[in-house]
Automatic annotation (TrEMBL):
Pfam families linked to this entry: Fic-like_C, HATPase_c_4, SLFN_AlbA_2
Protein's name in the database: DNA binding domain-containing protein
Start and end residues of each Filamentation induced by cAMP protein Fic-like C-terminal domain: 442-492
Superkingdom of the organism of origin: Bacteria
InterPro entries linked: Fic-like_C (IPR049514), RecG_C_sf (IPR038475), Schlafen_AlbA_2_dom (IPR007421), Schlafen_AlbA_2_dom_sf (IPR038461)
The species this protein was found in: Pontibacter aquaedesilientis
Domain Schlafen AlbA-2: 18-143
């Protein structure tokens, strides 16, 4: 018996699937169900199709629980009628059907993914010589397409999202059963209990990660990205690169590369950031018992920004997702930019209403794993978590041609280097006099450290130059480009006064 790669409780309550992609039907209504199947198959907005749940009533868009359910005889009848309805859709379209036992009742779930042969049309009514129409989803409803929408459907016919396309250079052997079982177990799918007893090709078909005839069954790209041990062997850019800059110039840095199944590399990258980057401070508030806690970066903002980059990037390109951790900000860069019509002006709005998605299937898997939220909620969540942490507002950027998407998360001001108190004891006075005197005329970092006779690495920079910058006794000659190779340091008026005092 087929099963679903999703937790049934999460599905019924629209926890991991948007409510607009779920239709609840108290009983079997063949015409309505046929129209909805046709609309989900057309997947007009590339949302990934949807689900029809038969045996649960709906009120104001929400399921009425406990379910009314179906008796076993009704289930058998519905499944036989489903085959007839599927053949009335042109081209023929067959959803995945699964009988589930939920809150003591049998329900029938139809999983209708976006079809490979769109546009699809079906009869308006189940009568002899019917009129055929194209159906699409608008909000939570299945409606007949307008003439203009019909034209757009034809334009979409050859634009199956990359993650849902067959990969003809790979084979079903490239999909790994342990990774599939791990996923099914984690999401709480009932299919996990039976997966080991199902022929592997059939299991992959139920997950919709293979397509084709029995004699030419091939994986789709989303299956290779999640259920292959080394997806970079197939998609060169399917990785996350993290570069941590240890000084403003960029002479000293650490680099980490995360590969493997995309959901696992995402988790590993986030774990690395959480363990090595995230820092907390506690601030006592006068006349208040409870202290204020805040972070250099709220983890939830980084998690959402990086998950969105993995979700929305193009795996046809060789560019990895880049995370640059600088002294005062984190930059998360992915390629290309947002899918039209979203542009750089839309990124300034509080909420973005996107109607097309580059990777409809990857998004579904990441939501099932609770690695990202529903569509359209990413940017608002990042803004909200930064605000709650009293951090500066995040910045979202792309260019006119939408070549890239850049998210910048500024550090909390309390963690800025200029807000760290430098050590004014001991050797500070000894070296400050020499450095300030030298910088009456501009000198480079290398020249300063060599004149002191010390190591020219980042540690010496932080000890001998950075404190003078923090106290504004020195300034940069190219302030808008702190990492410029031509950068030099020059004494300020405050530095001249300090030098006079030290002399």
């Amino acid at each position: 018996m087929p099963g679903l790669p999703i937790n049934i409780n999460d599905l019924v309550n629209a926890t991991t699937v948007e409510s607009e992609r779920i239709e609840y039907k108290e009983s079997w209504n063949p015409e309505d169900i046929m129209h909805s199947l046709c609309a989900f198959a057309n997947d007009f907005h590339n949302l990934g199709g949807g689900y029809i749940i038969v045996g649960i009533a709906e009120k104001n868009g929400l399921p009425v629980l406990p379910p009314k359910g179906l008796v076993p005889e009704q289930v058998d009848t519905c499944q036989k009628k489903l085959l007839e309805l599927s053949r009335k859709i042109i081209p023929s379209y067959f959803p995945v059907s699964s009988v589930e036992f939920y809150q003591g009742k049998h329900i029938l779930v139809l999983w209708a993914t976006g079809g490979d042969n769109r546009p699809y049309k079906c009869p308006k009514n189940l009568v002899p010589n019917p009129t055929y129409n194209y159906y699409i989803r608008k909000s939570s409803n299945s409606v007949m397409a307008t003439p203009d929408e019909e034209r757009q459907l034809y334009e979409l016919a050859n634009r199956i999202p990359f993650d849902d396309r067959i990969n003809h250079s790979a084979s079903i052997e490239d999909l790994k059963l342990p990774l599939i079982l791990s996923f099914l177990k984690e999401v709480g799918s009932e299919l996990y209990q039976r997966a080991s007893s199902i022929p592997f090709p059939e299991l992959c078909q139920q997950l919709q990660i293979v397509k084709g005839s029995s004699e030419y069954l091939r994986p789709v790209n989303v299956g290779l990205l999640l259920f292959n041990d080394h997806p970079t062997n197939i998609f060169r850019g399917a990785k996350i690169e993290i570069v941590r800059y240890l000084d403003p110039i960029g002479d000293e840095l650490e680099e980490r590369i995360f590969e493997g199944p995309v959901h696992l590399q995402l988790r590993s990258a986030l774990q690395f950031i959480q363990n090595t980057i995230i820092a907390e401070r506690v601030k006592k508030i006068p006349n208040q018992a409870e202290a204020r806690r805040f972070y250099n970066y709220p983890y939830a903002a980084i998690e959402e920004a990086l998950a969105n980059a993995v979700f929305h990037r193009s795996y046809e390109l060789d560019n990895p997702v880049e995370v640059n951790i600088r002294l005062d900000r984190i930059e998360i860069l992915s390629f290309p930019g947002p899918v039209p019509p979203v542009d750089k002006d839309d990124l300034k709005k509080d909420r973005i209403v996107a109607r097309s998605y580059r990777n409809r299937r990857i998004g579904d898997f990441l939501k099932e794993l609770r690695l990202t939220e529903g569509r359209g909620t990413g940017i608002p969540k990042i803004r909200r978590t930064m605000l709650l942490n009293d951090s500066p507002a995040p910045i979202f950027e792309t260019d006119e041609a939408r070549n890239y998407f850049l998210v910048t998360l500024p550090i909390h001001e309390s963690f800025l280097p200029l807000n760290d108190e430098p050590d004014l004891e001991g050797s500070f006075i000894d070296f400050a006099k020499d450095v300030l005197a030298l910088c009456r005329v501009p000198h480079s970092r290398l020249e300063i450290l060599r004149s002191l006779g010390v190591n020219t690495g980042a540690a010496s920079y932080r000890k001998y130059i950075l404190p003078l910058l923090q106290l504004e006794l020195l300034r940069l000659t190219i302030p808008d480009k702190p990492s410029s190779k031509n950068q030099k340091y020059l004494i300020t008026n405050a530095g001249k006064a300090m030098l006079q005092k030290l002399s």
